[in-house]
Design goal:
With 477 residues, the chain is an alpha+beta fold. It contains nine helices and 26 strands. It is elongated and about 75 Å long.
């Protein structure tokens, strides 16, 4: 390794300490912005709404202050760049949009809150603070005056959470980086992601059905296990039974029933409880429920929400690289007599998107539903033995003194949108645990420990130094 890129733990710690107040101020400026998708207020320059646009402006200001040349990408995906001499480009992509806050927060989701050694707020883990970690790591080398050899381009996406329509726009105007990583997963390194399958179901209650359900609303995002689901039913509160995770209060047309679950990312459903399933199961058991409603809510509970491996649908498969398929019922909303449900499936190479399509088309016929396939992307894998990937793995080893192997996952990141890309940190749950009261990405009380932030910055500093010494970033496959 070139002496120019040798750094000591003391040097890293001093840099982080000296920049920490500045880092926190930048984090606050980003977390304070509700940058969830807002199509109703989209227009030229803010195609995903004013929140993502505002967050993009904030991250561009931060990068420009650091010394990067910045461009806003018409509000789709901006970027910040450092020139290089090799003619090759290293890309780092993250996103400034977030999922909606949802319910169940103890803290203000749009204010950076520190409790003990934890920072809380929407975007602290997904993906605003991770982006800052990588930016500050690159700034370390800029402050030292060391050339990073290859051009470095930070790409700031604005639509990762709701369709990734930012990347096609970016790639229509710019060549893909020769190698890219995204700080939007876990360490040590993810070299493959499950396939992505999304489906929307529309079921209209027969006109002959006597309905007790006036309204039904559950979930805020298709890629998150819902924590809250609510329904108004034509039954008096005193006639409704008590049940675990169920609260009842009077409403204009009867009773408002609220079910509480445990939220989490759709790719990691273990340990979650689907609030829609809790509520559907409760309604299906009510004696006042009509036969048609009971059949529908039983299907919702037992066929869609209760099991996250897809077994009721006959799609429970797994393979050695990716493990099991996951299936999550993310949202249901009733509009007049029609229920609209969204399902998020992450699938291994043991099944195909076309096979899943066939399953849901058959289900539509059986259940008299309309089915729309909203997403169908096959799994992707890159070779973990290439020199750039090994440079990142070596950076992790240098920062931690741990011997580890790269992995695959069910989460969807920007990496799958590029020809030569991996996801790399910033979380390291096997090394740094967070308190039980801290929520996960997409959940209430989303948070990250200060230790995890410092850990990530150290690793990213090593990573930029190692990648600067790789002769060719491009894939040779």
């Amino acid at each position: 390794m070139s002496n120019s890129f040798v750094v000591t733990s003391e040097e890293l710690n001093t840099y982080i300490a000296n920049r920490w107040d500045e880092f926190l101020a930048d984090a606050q400026s980003l977390i304070s912005i509700d940058s969830s998708f807002d199509p109703d207020h989209a227009r030229s320059g803010q195609p995903f709404g004013p929140g993502p646009r505002k967050a993009l402006d904030a991250i561009l200001r931060i990068a420009q202050r650091m010394g990067f040349e910045v461009h806003d990408g018409d509000g789709y995906a901006g970027y910040a760049e450092l020139p290089g001499k090799s003619g090759q480009q290293l890309g780092i992509i993250g996103h400034v949009d977030v999922v909606p806050a949802g319910e169940g927060w103890t803290f203000d989701p749009f204010s950076l809150t520190q409790k003990g050694e934890v920072l809380l707020g929407r975007g602290t883990t997904d993906d605003k603070i991770p982006l800052l970690c990588a930016l500050y790591a690159c700034k370390f080398w800029m402050d030292k005056g060391v050339s990073l050899r290859h051009a470095v381009r930070f790409i700031f996406g604005c639509n990762e959470e709701t369709g990734m329509k930012d990347v096609p726009y970016y790639l229509a105007h710019h060549a893909a980086p020769d190698f890219l990583f995204t700080p939007d997963a876990d360490f040590p390194l993810c070299y493959g992601e499950k396939g992505l399958f999304g489906v929307t179901l529309n079921y209209t209650m027969p006109c002959t059905a006597k309905q007790i359900v006036v309204s039904f609303d559950g979930g805020v995002a298709s890629n998150a296990v819902p924590a809250i689901a609510c329904a108004v039913v034509r039954v008096k509160p005193e006639n409704l039974p008590s049940a675990k995770r169920i609260t009842v209060e009077p409403a204009d047309k009867g009773s408002l029933i609220t079910a509480t679950g445990i939220s989490g990312h759709a790719s990691l459903p273990d340990g979650t409880i689907n609030a829609i399933g809790v509520l559907a199961n409760y309604i299906a058991a009510l004696p006042e429920c009509s036969e048609e409603e009971r059949a529908w809510f039983s299907f919702v509970s037992e066929g869609l929400a209760q099991y996250t491996d897809g077994s009721p649908l006959g799609i429970a498969v797994r393979d050695k690289d990716f493990g099991p398929l996951t299936s999550v019922l993310g949202t249901i909303h009733k509009n007049n007599d029609t229920y609209t449900a969204t399902i998020d499936i992450r699938f291994p190479q043991a099944i195909t998107g076309d096979s899943l399509t066939s399953v849901f088309e058959e289900l539509a016929t059986q259940k008299s539903m309309e089915v729309t396939i909203t997403r169908n992307q096959e799994p992707f894998v890159v070779n973990p033995e290439t020199e750039p990937v090994q440079a990142l793995m070596q950076a992790y080893k240098e920062a931690t003194n741990l011997e580890v192997k790269p992995f695959t996952m069910g989460g969807a990141t920007y990496a799958r949108e590029f020809p030569n890309a991996v996801s790399f940190g910033p979380l390291d749950p096997k090394v740094i645990q967070k308190p039980d009261w801290v929520g996960n990405m997409h959940g209430a009380d989303e948070g990250i420990t200060i230790e995890a932030i410092h850990h990530a910055i150290r690793i990213y500093i090593h990573a930029f130094g190692n990648l600067a010494q790789v002769e060719s970033l491009a894939s040779k496959e």
